Each structure stands twice: as structure tokens, then as C-alpha cells.
Amino acid sequence: MSIDTRALLYLIAAVAFIIGLKRLGSPRTARSGNTVAATGMLMAMIVTLVDAEVSWVILGSGLAVGALLGGFAALRVQMTAMPQLVAAFNGFGGIASALVAGAEFVSADGFEFPAETMIPIILSVLIGSVTFTGSFVAYAKLQGLIGGSPLTYPGQKIVNALLGIGLVAAAVLAHINQDSLTFWIVGGLALVLGVLAVIPIGGADMPVVIALLNSLSGMAAAATGFVISNSALIIGGALVGASGLILTKLMTEAMNRTLGNVLFGAFGGTTGAAAAGTGGDVTTTTPADLAIALAYANQVVFVPGYGLAVAQAQHVTREVASALEERGVKVAYGIHPVAGRMPGHMNVLLAEADVPYDQLLDLDQTNNLLSRTDVVLVLGANDVVNPSARDDAGSSIYGMPILEVDHAATVVVVKRSLSPGFAGIDNPLFYRDGTRMLFSDAKLALTELAAALEDV
Amino acid sequence: MTEVLSPVVIGIVVFVLAAFIGFELITKVPPTLHTPLMSGSNAISGITVVGAIIATGAGSGTLGDALAFVAVVTATINVVGGFLVTDRMLGMFRKPKRSEDTK
Hints:
The structure holds two protein chains of two kinds.
Chain A: H1 3-23, H2 30-49, H3 56-76, H4 82-106, H5 115-143, H6 156-177, H7 180-198, H8 206-227, H9 231-254, H10 259-264, H11 287-295, E1 299-304, H12 306-310, H13 314-326, E2 330-334, H14 345-352, E3 360-361, H15 363-370, E4 375-379, H16 388-391, E5 410-415, E6 435-439, H17 442-455
Parallel strand pairs in A: 1-2, 1-4, 2-3, 4-5, 5-6
Helix pairs in contact in A: 1-2, 1-9, 4-5, 4-8, 5-7, 5-8, 6-7, 8-9, 11-17, 13-17
Chain B: H1 7-27, H2 34-44, H3 49-55, H4 61-90
Helix pairs in contact in B: 2-4, 3-4
């Protein structure tokens, strides 16, 4: 196969990626879009294999091992564990790009690379290695292997800055000298930087981190594309790099924070002084009373947070919703962009519980509906419904877009205690006149609620 | 005599245009689909498997072979796992039509 034919076939594969991503833009076409992209990938691999001088032993065994591990993980994973799985896949993609660039460097055998090859080799190793260890620290935090709270120590920013400077210096040296030792030092320093950069970032900031790492894995693939002069890698990598950046931006906007603040702020997990209940008395309710309020409502909105996923309560939430729908109550779910541990996580969890996707509303749609809502049920969400973000200019979350649940006629908050959320601040919503607190575990409360609804 | 563009410049042109296409496409994806979008695009970044396949044929000694092998394994995990899990997730997104009996 001529190099031109090959390049055109790679272009078709790249177009399949673009069509696939376009179809991922609507729930109706998304699944077929994924299939189109996967077909493009298969085609790119076949094109590569035609007339190629490959080691079939290495290749065959590598493909078999990778397909088994990846397939097993994909088919077995719980939907609650999706963020860490995506983090892990990200990490593998990143290190694969770094290794391809490393193999290219090793193959030189005394030959000096021109700048247009050497620079992408170094970039690929650097970005790919940071992505790898960064992703696995994120994995460990999400999986609970290490604590989710920010891990900080004195002088942390200085250490990271020095490491960054050292890494850039080593990269420049590796480019000038083209010697193996400096080259491997770049890889080593990048691996260390990935770890140190992610450990100070708190668990609830993981949506930003995962989106950013997603982008980096694309950048690494694109850099590798420059190394081997392959447009499919460049296009695929650029698409993913752009996609990850947009999601990163959406996530930081949803928190009203800058990327720098997320990466270096070591936000959350602190037991702030304001945490002690300052707001006065709360009004409590019971599952039986709540069942009556819901059964005679016209419009009910559920606001699920990560606590719902932790309690595995999405299925029983759906049961309650179904019971209400049978009574003619209109039901919707208001989902804040940073609910859950990755962008869109809560939507997948509710989809798994068979909630139709037209009931899953985003921030603006929910806020439009809330003023016409009779009862809003807050399940395991806290900071994203905190009116301080709107009203209190002194609050640490001031300016963060929230679900304005206090616009609904009645707010019911299901929560185990009055403890503060991730931001470590008190929530005035709990002490409002129109708010009822149901102190309970989300799953238990919903199970009791489902039972109580049968008696109404 | 005409000058010929160097491959790296062509590469940069392709990269920049593809990035803009990416921005345009992804901006239109609704929040409901952000998780499948991430895992699907993540699988696309596994396109580096093409580089890994080529690297297995470089024949650059034990170290090169070892790097190539691990690259193939990790890239394949990324590709196969990524597309499969995305398909699994998207299979759960239920149509709004009231068809209570269909699963």
C-alpha cells in the first residue's frame, strides 16, 4: 500500500471519529456514534497492519492481554465507579503515547533526531507520563484507596514549582544533547509531577481533574502523531484535547472557580469554623408526612447529589418517582453540573435506574421549573443548593451557580445531619421557613417513603 | 521551483483545524451525555495504538520491544475498554416514550 493510499485511509478513520463525536451530541444517536468511532479505530488498526513489518508475537500477545483487561473492566464496572474507571483508561492512554515516543527514541541507535521529531517525542513522554500517574492518583482517591481530602504539606507549591522548572530544564537538555540519561530523567520527573500535582486536589474537585487529564491524554496522542507523522493520531488527539478542555472549562465555571484555584487551591476537606450550626432552628418532617405532600403535589423535582450515589439510592428514587407518576404527579430531576465525581456522572446513574433522559434537567432548565414546583426533594446534595452562593458576598462559594431550590413552594432536604458539605460552610437553606429536614440515610428514607406512598 | 511544505507544518495545520472541529462538536453535547462523551473521546485518544503497532516492528532490541509491548497492552485497554464501557452506558439511556414494558 502506498503512503498516499494509507494517509487517505487514515483520513477516513479520522472522519469516523468526527462523525462519532457529532452523533454523541444527542441521546438518540449517541450509541451509534460510539459504534462509528469504534469502527474508525478498527479501520485505522487494520490499515496499519497491512504490509507492516510488525512483530506478530509482541503485537498479538499485547492486543490479547489489553483487550481482555480492558473488556473485563468495562463489562464489570459499577456505574458508581465510572469516574475511576475513566481515570484509569485515561492513564493507560497517556502512558501508551509516552511509551510509543520512548520506543521511537530507543530505535534511533545513535541517529540524531531533527527538532521536528525530537520536540514531539519529548512532549509526548512528558504529557503522557504526567497523565499516567496523575490519573492513577485520581483513581486511588476516587476508589478510596487513599483519602479523598487534599494532601498538603508546607512548601508544597515551591516543591511543585521547582519540579516543574527542573522538568522543563531536563526537557531542553534532552533535546539538545539527545542522550538517553536525560531523556529518561524527563520521563521520571514527569511521572513524579503527575503524582504531586494531583495529591493536593480534593475529592469533589475530581470532575475538573478527570476532564483535564482527558484533555492531556489527547494532547499526548497528538504529540505522538507528530512523532510518527500520522494524521489519524493528530486529528484524534486534537479532538480529545479540545473535548477535555471544554469539559474542564464547564466544570470550573459550574464551581465559579479558576482552573488555577482548583489545581493549586487544595480546596475542601477542611473543617471550617463556620461549620457549626449558626442558623438557628430547623423544621423536621417524617416519611409519612412527606408522602402526603408529594402525593398531592402537581410538580416534584428531585435534586440528587453524590451522597445519593454513595448510598446506592438511585433505584429506590426511581421507584418513588414511578409511584408519583402513577398518581399523575409530574416528576423531574435537577442535576447540577458538578453533582457526582465526573461530568454527567449523576445522569448515568439515573439512566441506569431507568429514568428517561427527558426527565434529567440541567441547571438552567431546572431553575426555570423550580418556581413552578410544589415540592423539591434534595437528596445528598448540599453546596450546589446553598443560597449563600447567591446572597452572601462573603461566602467562599459566592458566585457559584446553584440550583435555586428555595424558589419552590416546599423544600425537603434528606440528610443524615446538619454537617456541612465539601466546601465546609453552613447552609442557610436548612433553617429557612419553607424547608423541612428529614434526618436519615437517603436510601432508608426513600425506602420508607415508597412504603408510605402506598398508604396515601 | 516551488517550495514544499514540511510535514510538521502540515501536521500543525491539521492539528489546529481538528481542534476547532472538536470545540464546535463538543460544545453542543448536552450535560446528560458528558460522561459517555468523556469515556468515548477517551477511547478515541487510544488511537495511539497505531503508533504502538508500528513500534513492535522497530526491532530495536529488548528495551524497544518491551516498551512496544507495554504500549500495545495499555493502548488496547484504552481502546477496547473505552468503547465497550461507553456502549454499555449509552445502552442504559432510555427513550422518553412511555413504554413501561420494554425492560
